[in-house]
Amino acid sequence: MKDNTTPRKLNCIIIDDDQNIVDVFCDLLGIIDVNVLATGNDGKNAVNLYEKHNPDIVFTDLQMPEYNGYYVVETIKDLDPDAKLVVVTGDPDAVYSNLFDLLHVPVVNKPFDIAQIKKIITDITSENNSILPFEIRYKFKDDINYYSCTVTYPQYRNFKRLPIIEECEIITTQKTLQPHEDEMQRALDLVMQNDTSHIRKLSELVRS
Question: CA-CA distances (angstroms) from residue 205 to 110, 168, 202?
Fold first, then answer.
């Protein structure tokens, strides 16, 4: 028997501080049959609209005042690790962001290519978005040295927020977690109490 079920139309939100770009992108998505639920002009709008509409895809500009595209990606991924996001930007360096690579966030450069947009939508709605452990490079405020260790994405986000940490960046994506995740979590819990002894044991000194 023939299946006459009509596939559900994908929906999205678009975030860009340039209204002309928003209008053009809305028209382009209409051509490829993607429904635009709402638009916003900064990262704060993006998070609010995501919570309100729960779209299939978020298209966000990168360079925006106050709350930029990095804020959009990190905050929405905190809310929903399975969220599908696409960065649309005029900054060619954004293509090489370890953060976007780690989180499976494709980057589209302006001006738009409709064939590229269509392929990206197909890819991100069908691929596995699991985030593997990865390596970070960090520095304590009271230490001139840099260290590296392997963490999960939630551990990285929590680590960055600690007052005792001066710098923290992703340096290598998708590694096998060593040591065990629970052991690293215990070390991070101790760091929250200003005890850095265990995390230092689990990290390697980065040679300059």
Answer: 40, 14, 10
pLDDT at 58: 97
How many independent structural domains does the chain possess? Answer: 2
pLDDT band at 6 (very low <50, low <70, confident <90, very high): low
Average pLDDT, the chain: 87
Sign of CA dihedral 18, 20, 21, 22: positive
Q: What is the CATH number of the domain that holds 16?
A: 3.40.50.2300
Q: Which residues lie closer than 8 Å to 125 by C-beta, 6 or more apart?
A: 10, 56, 57, 84
Asked whether residue 155 is assigned to any structural domain, the reply reads yes
Domain co-membership, 118 together with 28: yes
Mark whether 164 and 197 lie in a shared domain.
yes
Q: Of 84, 101, 124, which marks where a domain is finished?
A: 124
Digit-coded pLDDT (tens) for 154-203: 899 999 989 999 999 998 766 665 556 788 888 888 888 888 888 888 88
What pTM was computed for the model? Answer: 0.84
pLDDT at 1 over 80: no
The whole domain housing 78 covers 11-124
